[in-house]
Specification:
elongated, 6 helices, 80% helix
Length: 171
């Protein structure tokens, strides 16, 4: 069920579908992060990805609480957007031999995922606020803040911790 389907008739339907979308997305990220961690060589990047893997598990727990508040069981709906971002990340990683360039690509791919999540959580917060689901807003806001922090950490790794600099000098 996509966002432009006849099954979505109300804001409540939109909110539930959006929660299912991000729930599925977070579960796919849980599967993808260990592969990124395994391929990364920069220790700051590895540490950041490991930390975000732990955060993502907690984000899934918060999403499950949001479903519970709505009286629904947690469930996901396939998200072509996250599937595409992860597929692109895997394809890119498979094409790069130089480890320093690979680290830069991992940062970029991880940031693409973070930006998607930031967008999705922001929308869900707005919808939940409009519908008066303050308890759900708190869960989603915590997740959003973690996604923003993860993106900032990735920026730091790329720019201040030298990942981009090292990649730019690769032969």
């Amino acid at each position: 069920m996509g966002f432009f389907t006849k099954d979505l008739k109300t804001m409540d339907d939109l909110l539930l579908h959006g929660l299912q979308d991000i729930y599925y997305s977070e579960q796919q990220i849980i599967k993808a992060l260990p592969k990124m961690i395994e391929k990364a060589t920069n220790r700051d990047l590895v540490a950041g990805l490991k930390n975000h893997l732990e955060e993502t598990n907690k984000q899934i727990e918060r999403l499950e609480k949001a479903f519970e508040k709505l009286g629904k069981g947690p469930s996901g709906t396939q998200c072509p957007a996250i599937d595409g971002l992860i597929k692109e990340a895997n394809e890119t990683a498979g094409e790069i031999e130089d480890k320093t360039v690979l680290d830069a690509a991992i940062v970029a791919n991880a940031q693409a995922v973070e930006h998607y999540e930031i967008c999705r959580y922001g929308t869900l917060i707005a919808w939940a606020e409009e519908l008066g689901h303050d308890d759900i807003v708190r869960f989603l806001t915590t997740n959003l803040n973690e996604e923003k922090a993860a993106n900032t950490k990735l920026n730091t790794v790329a720019l201040r911790k030298g990942v981009n600099k090292k990649a730019s000098t690769a032969a």
